[in-house]
From TrEMBL, chain A:
SUPFAM superfamilies: PH domain-like (SSF50729), Second domain of FERM (SSF47031), Ubiquitin-like (SSF54236). This is Erythrocyte membrane protein band 4.1 like 2. The keyword Zinc-finger does not apply. It comes from Gasterosteus aculeatus aculeatus (three-spined stickleback). GO terms for molecular function: actin binding; structural molecule activity.
UniProtKB/TrEMBL annotation, chain B:
This is Dimethylarginine dimethylaminohydrolase 1. Pfam families: DDAH_eukar (PF19420). InterPro entries: DDAH-like. The keyword Lipid biosynthesis does not apply. It comes from Gasterosteus aculeatus aculeatus. Keywords: Hydrolase. Belongs to the DDAH family. One of its GO terms (biological process) is arginine metabolic process.
Length: 793, 264
């Protein structure tokens, strides 16, 4: 396969939405840049991953050569996961706080996609174009909370590029100020004897850079004397983080009336823009469900104080891929920035955010115990000395060499080592002088005419875009009945009936059942579980905001495929019921294309009995894993992936339970939505009190962990009533000839009143036993999360 | 200023304009109450006196123009934030020329002038609420989407959110900033509704101070170099009716800071 260095940071622009991207030059530029840099070819599975280019500037004239370091890795195994590469790159960069970053690549549609760490690289890169770009994936809202300077430095590199390219718009003054910090960080104190021009013209600080701006930058730079590089970076970030578009990932969309708008995904939630004006905002805690169906993207909004019902807001994306991509970005951002440690119960969908949340990341970072690493900044002292024009950057030389064997080599151009002993105090000390500096700066106002185009530029490439190709998506919510040779077919029973899986288990079957009842104080009613089911082809993500359980009932397979439409049923009412049942027969055929399987599944599926939400008796196979270990889940799925049903013609996947309630989705006018009083307070942080009771049967638990087995099927059913959400995840795993079915059921009860834990537990066990008499309950977890009273208003 | 976006910065200058005699008869008015010109002028003088003498601001007094009956309401003619002054294009045609004098005055203060030349755009400064962290622009009879877009372009560092103003003249007819992070809001339904929208649209949290009468929510908050936080608000006695003609002024904080205004 072709190996190629990744483009320089500057070129590493994550492009936003697909189509627009195609038209956009910048996208093409990225591609070109990548190709230009594709210097290494290695057919022997060696591939080169370009780590972040350590160049902060757009070296206008020497762009193509910016790659400063290449990482040449030999591929240890065919099936190396994205993580492998990502970790290698981080290792190379000496980066420990890696969770904010990611690698992306360009897919066949010229869209940037984040490399999914949990999946095989090979499976994700379909076009043999092995070029990756290291990029910031989640912009930390407060960079000062990052533990290491090196992390801040890398974030600075990204932001310098964001600013210079116009993706992160800012005023003249801000451009100048940020530019001065960059100069200070990279070149140190201003040296009076330096030629005035400094060759600044060769550095790009802003899209509309001009002499005036360069003058300002220099002027400001002078006043930063004495500031260490780390301090300059910190100041740079302090200012950048306040910019309104900091970390906002924009996607083109249309509202219900076909008006062009932009959806911005960020740490706080989803923003709606119309012609660069913010016209609406949905904070993450407000969003109950995120889903997409074909090219529609929906969010279900928690009812406001005065409203009784939830509302669903829909947007149209350019196509299915765009919708899916936006959905993923939302799921990932929601997950990452979720205030509570979300325990995701990712059901069914292959896609989930597998990384840490920001909170976890911070905790982990606080444990970093190493001396501040020395790292090299792009511009060395040397460079700064010859700045006056020479610009003799070694960039040009970076031609990566070809490496044979298993070695990893890193090549740097002349990078400079810098000292790292600045402390926060030092930084503070500088503030005063800085403010003074700014004051004086203000006296001479520079011209900065508004530049409408900037806005568009941002769109071109937004680093935050997340697109994962999910090749192996398992069709969630489908029930596949695959009578296997020798194996028993699995039948899914209607809500009432026990999930058919059992039948399949002729052999030793270990049934694990997990009931998780989470109660939350909030909604008012406490109702019985309704059995409404909802099955959709499209994916959904339900952040149970208060509790933060995430359910992703389903996901579609390939982006390429044109999926059959599935029906989505969601009760318009308060809670949604979604049921996803997934089941698969033992898969012998590993090579099958999932896609196919899926398709088939879908088609046939209609006939399937609806397991639909057996409100009570969802079961989850071991493989699917209990929600707790979300991290492992992906793996499981990953393995399962190859499986898919092809060999068995009998595999029937039912995407829709017989009784499907069709959801009425209101595509509401954003402006109208705005008028309604949606939540008054967005409390980004939900204070909760939690209590967890776990019951675990001593017995056959081990099986799940011992050997992974082959995941044959997995299905998820979610049902909801007014204040109860039941999610059932059923997994069938084939282990050494034995098939095992595991049912995991999660019940989330949302209510005002206090719920008796013990009773809930007993009830859960009882119901489980009744529904699946032939299975045993192995684990029951009762998790209670109480939202502490919110103050205010 | 200590950061590009350091909230309100410091107020150093105030721009005001005299009251023309034509105000009484020709000014645009939402209610038909009699205007006591002499009283209005007296109040205005008092206002200028407070700004200049008591608060120590450098007051730039622009002469009244009889052909511009509404010219005293300077806040509508320009929006100043940081080093930039956006000269507006007032929604009322009869007021467009008010910006000319304002523009030259602000130019002299060394502000970076941005003009709204698009003929489809209208914007009254009275619809622009700057909170220190972001802008809210009321879409009203006087301000349209295009005007708001131009404002967003002029102040790129900040988020600019639109708020429908369904009743009343301007967004700031019923609200204003009472300090950093504090919105003073009237208690009428439209006012409360607008507040909710603003809260929903913002990434920041604001405290609110609800006052019984919408008009009483019309204050001027200033951060003065030597005096700290100052809130200029209608007095109790002044309030009910007289306040109507009273506080309309505009002050520009020039050394890089906000120019906030009040008005209704």
């Amino acid at each position: 396969m072709t190996t190629a260095p990744i483009g320089p940071m500057e070129e590493c622009v994550a492009v936003e939405t697909d189509e627009e991207r195609e038209e956009r030059n910048s996208a093409t530029d990225v591609m070109k840049a990548m190709n230009r840099n594709a210097l290494i070819e290695d057919l022997n599975r060696n591939f080169v991953a370009m780590a972040i280019t350590k160049s902060h500037f757009n070296w206008k004239k020497k762009r193509p050569n910016i790659n400063l370091c290449c990482l040449n890795l030999s591929f240890p195994q065919k099936r190396a996961k994205g993580q492998f590469l990502f970790f290698k790159v981080c290792e190379h960069l000496n980066l420990m706080e890696k969770d904010y970053f990611g690698l992306f690549y360009m897919d066949n549609h010229a869209q940037t996609c984040w490399l999914d760490p949990t999946k095989d690289i090979k499976r994700q890169i379909r076009n043999n174009n092995w070029q990756f770009v290291f990029n910031v994936k989640f912009y930390p809202p407060d960079p000062s909370l990052l533990t290491e300077d090196i992390t801040r430095y890398l974030l600075c590199l990204q932001l310098r590029e964001d600013v210079a390219s116009g993706r992160l718009p800012c005023s003249f003054v801000t451009h100048a100020l940020l530019g001065s910090y960059t100069l200070q960080a990279e070149f140190g104190d201003h040296e009076p004897d330096q030629p005035r021009t400094l060759g600044l013209g060769q550095l790009t600080f802003a899209p509309n850079q001009n002499k005036d701006m360069e003058e300002k930058i220099l002027e400001l730079h002078k006043s930063l004397r004495g500031m260490t590089p780390a301090q300059a970076d910190a100041q740079f970030l302090e200012n950048a983080k306040k910019l309104s578009m900091y970390g906002v990932d924009l996607h083109h969309a249309k509202d219900s009336e076909g008006v062009d708008i932009m959806l911005g995904v960020c740490a706080n939630g989803l923003l709606v823009y119309k012609d660069r004006l913010r016209i609406n905002r949905f904070a993450w805690p407000k969003i109950l469900k995120i889903s997409y169906k074909r090219n529609n993207f929906y969010i279900k909004i928690r009812p406001g104080e005065t409203e009784q019902f939830e509302s669903t807001v829909g947007f149209k994306l350019q196509n299915h891929r765009c919708a899916k991509r936006l959905w993923k970005v939302c799921v990932e951002n929601h997950s990452f920035f979720s205030p509570t440690k979300a325990r995701f119960l990712t059901l069914g969908s292959k896609f989930r955010y597998s990384g840490r949340t920001q909170a976890q990341t911070r905790t982990a970072s606080s444990l970093i115990d190493r001396p501040a690493p020395n790292f090299q900044r792009t511009s060395s002292k040397r460079i700064s000395r010859s700045l006056d024009g020479g610009n003799t950057h070694t960039h040009a030389e970076v031609a990566p060499m070809r490496v044979h064997g298993d070695n990893i080599y890193v090549r740097h151009s002349n990078l400079m080592l810098e000292d790292h002993d600045k402390t926060q105090d030092d930084v503070l000390k500088h503030q005063a002088s800085i403010s003074q500096l700014k004051r004086s700066f203000m006296e001479a106002p520079p011209p900065s005419p508004p530049q409408p185009n900037q806005w568009e530029k941002r769109l071109t490439s937004s680093p935050a875009t997340t697109i994962l190709e999910i090749e192996e998506t398992v069709v969630v919510q489908e029930v596949s009945i695959a009578p296997k040779p020798g194996r028993v077919a699995v039948t899914a029973g209607p809500p009432a009936g026990p999930p058919a899986q059992q039948e399949a288990l002729e052999q030793e079957v270990t049934v694990g059942q997990e009931v998780v009842a989470a109660e939350e104080a909030k909604a008012a009613k406490q109702e019985s579980v309704s059995s409404e089911s909802e099955s959709e082809e499209e994916a959904e993500y339900h952040p149970n905001v208060s509790i933060c359980h995430t359910k992703i009932p389903e996901e579609e397979e390939e982006e390429e495929e044109e999926q059959a439409d599935k029906t989505a049923g969601a009760p318009p009412l308060v809670d949604e019921v979604s049921a996803a049942v997934e089941e698969s027969a033992p898969a012998d055929a590993r090579d099958e294309k999932n896609t196919e399987g899926e398709h088939q599944a879908e088609k046939d599926g209609s006939g399937e009995p609806a397991h639909a939400a057996a409100p009570n008796g969802p079961r989850v196979p071991e493989g699917s894993a209990s929600g707790a270990e979300q991290d492992q889940e992906p793996k499981v799925n990953g393995e399962a992936r190859p499986v898919e049903a092809e060999h068995r013609p009998q595999v029937i996947c039912c995407s829709e339970p017989p009784v499907v309630k069709t959801e009425m989705v209101t595509i509401s006018d954003t402006f109208a939505a705005q008028k309604t009083e949606i939540a008054t307070k967005e409390v980004p942080i939900v204070h909760t009190e939690t209590k967890t009771i776990t019951y675990e049967a001593a017995q056959l638990d081990g099986n799940g962990d011992s050997e992974p087995g082959v995941l044959m099927t997995a299905q998820t059913i979610t049902s909801e009533s007014l204040c109860t959400t039941t999610t059932t995840h059923i997994t069938k795993t084939l282990k050494g000839g034995l098939s095992e079915t595991r049912i995991e059921k999660r019940i989330v009860i949302t209510g005002d009143c206090d719920i008796d834990h013990d009773q809930a537990l007993a009830q859960a066990i009882k119901e489980a036993k009744e529904q699946h008499p032939d299975m045993s309950v192995t684990r029951v977890v009762v998790h209670k999360e109480t939202e502490l009273a919110e103050e205010e208003d | 200023m200590a950061g590009l976006m350091s909230g309100f910065g410091h107020y150093t200058h105030a721009v005001v304009r005299g009251i023309p005699a034509s105000l009484a008869k020709e000014a645009l008015r939402s209610c038909q109450a009699e205007v006591d010109l002499a009283e209005a002028r007296r109040e205005h003088e008092e206002y200028v006196e407070v700004l200049g003498t008591r608060l120590g601001l450098e007051v730039v007094e622009l002469p009244a123009d009889e052909s511009l009956p509404d010219c005293v309401f300077v806040e509508d003619a320009a929006v100043v934030c940081g080093d930039t002054a956006l000269i507006t294009r007032p929604g009322a045609e009869s007021r467009r020329r008010e910006t000319e004098t304002m523009k030259s005055a602000l130019k002299e203060l060394n502000l970076n002038i941005v003009e709204m030349t698009d003929e489809k755009a209208t914007l009254d400064g009275g619809d622009v609420l700057f909170t220190g962290r972001e802008f809210f622009v009321g879409l009203s009879k006087r301000t349209n989407q295009r005007g708001a877009e131009i404002l967003a372009d002029a102040f790129k560092d900040y988020a600019v959110s639109t708020v429908p103003v369904l009743e009343g003249l301007h967004l700031k007819s019923f609200c204003s900033m009472g300090g950093p992070g504090l919105i003073v809001i009237g208690s009428s339904e439209p006012a409360q509704k607008a507040l909710k929208i603003m809260q929903q649209m913002s990434d920041h949290r604001y405290d609110k101070l609800t006052v019984p009468d919408d008009l009483a929510a019309n204050c001027i908050y200033m951060n003065l170099p030597n005096k700290g936080h100052v809130l200029l608000h209608p007095t109790a006695e002044q309030y009910p009716e007289s306040a109507k003609e009273d506080c309309r002024g505009n002050h520009a904080g020039c050394s890089g800071l906000m120019l906030k205004s009040l008005g209704f």
